[in-house]
Amino acid sequence: MLALIQTLVMALDIYWWLIIASAVFSWLYAFNVVNPRNQFVGSIGNFLFRVTEPALRPIRNLLPDLGGIDISPIILLLILFFLRQFLLTTIAPALLS
Questions:
Q1: Domain residue limits at 52
Q2: How does pLDDT run across 48-96, given as a tens digit for each residue?
Q3: Are 74 and 17 in contact (CB under 8 A)?
Q4: pTM listed for this prediction
Q5: Which residue ranges does UniProt annotate as crossing the membrane (predicted)?
C-alpha cells in the first residue's frame, strides 16, 4: 500500500511541474516570446493545454472575473500541495503503524 501512496505522490509532483510549465508557456505565448507558428512549439502548447485544462476549467468557473489575471493555476497548485501533504502526513503514517 505504501508503494501506491508513493506512486500517487510522484504523479502529483509531475502534474505540479506540468501546471507550472503550462503557466510559463502561456506567458511566453502571450508576450510573443515563442513563435506560435512553429509546429514544435504548437505541439508543446497543445499538450500542456490538454493536460492542465480539465483541472483548471472548473476552478476558473468558480472564480470571479479578475480581468486579465488568471489565478486558477495557483489555486490548483495549493490543492495539489494539500493532497500531497495529506498523503504523506496522514495516510502514509497510518499505514506504517
A1: 2-96
A2: 999 999 999 999 999 998 888 899 999 999 999 999 999 999 998 888 8
A3: no
A4: 0.90
A5: 12-30, 71-96
